[in-house]
Amino acid sequence: MKPIFKCELHYFPSPHLYQIYDGFEKLRRLGILDLSVKRAKGNLEKPLLNVTIDNKYTVVYDTLDGFNWIKGSVEENLEYFRTNINADFYFKRSFTTELVDIKSGNCKVYPLGLNYTFRPEGKYPKTPKEALKDTIKNNPVISKYYKKTYFSYSEYEYPPILNKKKQILFLERLWNPDEVSSEHEKAERDCINQNRMDYIKICRNQFGSQFIGGLQIDDFSNKHAKDLVVPRSLTNRGNYNNLLKSSDICIATTGLHNSTGWKFGEYVAASRAIISEPLEYDVPGNFSCNKNYLTFENENELVTNLNYLLKESDELYEMMRNNFHYYNNYLSPDK
Q1: How far apart are the first and last CA of the chain?
Q2: So what's the pLDDT on residue 146?
Q3: Is residue 321 within 8 Å of residue 160, measured between CB atoms?
Q4: Which of 84, 186, 277, 321 shows a CA-CA span of 20 to 30 A to 313?
């Protein structure tokens, strides 16, 4: 098969972009792409990937949380996007139609969709730190002690199978407001933290052993919500992945800059039913509320929706099936 496209990918190591790197490699292996990789000096805090297609078109893949190109207000960021984006095609993870209205020139802007992170396939350039980790991981003597940080995409994939005992999953983290300088960012983190703590408390109270949830352990969580912190054994990647597949219903909350969190993509990849705070941004395809997820804006709505899915097994299973089909049509790395 003769490749359809010639692509030059400007690579830099960023977990936000691993899903895209993996997709390009899969298309290369299918013979669809003639792919070359050029090492670039990217900013890990600003994960934007540039790809040149057929030596003619510039494509940008933007996996930033929200409108967050520069430090400043939403309005200032939108003005930055309007005046500084130079591409033929722009795929934005946190997408709204507002971007289409303000984009400059002939640039075409599209939703990139949900993301989740895993170790990409392919021989991408490695930093010295990554190379050292690979050396350690491949050493037969000490590999069994190596902490596995990332999985392959296939380790998240799971069919829509109902478990014998219906289980609810909500494992989250808190964000330290002292790590940001602006007052609106501090307020955002305070709001996210309070909501997550409140939701964990109400679910523990209402659903008991049927609910597995809590906060990832770190210094900030230990100081402010020690009673909600769960052991590392629950949040390490291997055990978390098993918990994800054994839980029929997963809860999602809004991330930084109103973004849709990585866990949402993981839930869809594993064909789970989802109850989420309202989504701020659009994704490709026919992904919609009441079909792929239910929404809640307060504790009462969360509990009501959880009780509904626990009671209505047919509706629960249908949502799992819908997410399975969506993943295979829109979210898998090659798509």
Answers
A1: 19
A2: 41
A3: yes
A4: 277
